[in-house]
């Protein structure tokens, strides 16, 4: 529910670990990364409620992983609207609950002061100086940050465009705020991954770089790193629904920076579904785009399907039910 209205009906495969594992088995998925859905980020909450909410979600995710410790890895959530408390929750979730990273939104929809004052209404982007404790803590804990788009109400609502166009645009704004906003300059080895193949960035990187070169007074004022070099320090997932674009993404970011994404269990993900009205059966499964690509070598496919995620999550493959490297 949202604002008293039904937002989305969820199926058991969204919340029940045994159902998730059964579907993973049917597709040959060995390990699943679990996290909350973006609508539950709740960045509008006051700091105290935000911390309580994040702890509840993270504890719940940890309990899910306990049921399938060799098959599941969790990415926690954070109260970004209160960075100091978010940093504390990062330490608790990693050290006490075993989180291997955190999922955050592409921006914060309002700013909640620590004490007193009035919440701001402007969108806070990820390069905001007030968020530095979160980036610094992620680095010190050696965990990754996964950025997922959300809050696309600014986009025209017709034709499902908030999801088709708004989400890629949100990813692009978030990625640009990180690479142009100086985050990579300040913390070069930070592990940050962006959803949906980097959104619109692969198609607009040339334009972004040209702007960086022709108007450095506007574009390069916070980072001296060429955007083409900057993207190779970031991670993206493989969800792009087009083999030609997947090849572009791998060429642009590097195979060692592209991880398998599924957007499971939602219809825009790489999952089987039946289209309303037309009844078209979409026989997709996680990893299909990568596995069936005629352009990728076996080594590149293995890296995208498994190796990059293992590196990003900082996990030991021996602790999980992963196939031997020769079979990946």
TrEMBL record:
Its EC number is 4.1.1.45. Residues 48-315 form the Amidohydrolase-related domain. It comes from Perkinsus olseni (Perkinsus atlanticus). Keywords: Decarboxylase, Lyase, Metal-binding, Zinc. This is 2-amino-3-carboxymuconate-6-semialdehyde decarboxylase. It comes from the Eukaryota. GO terms for molecular function: aminocarboxymuconate-semialdehyde decarboxylase activity; hydrolase activity; metal ion binding. GO terms for biological process: secondary metabolic process. InterPro entries: ACMSD, Amidohydro-rel, Metal_Hydrolase.
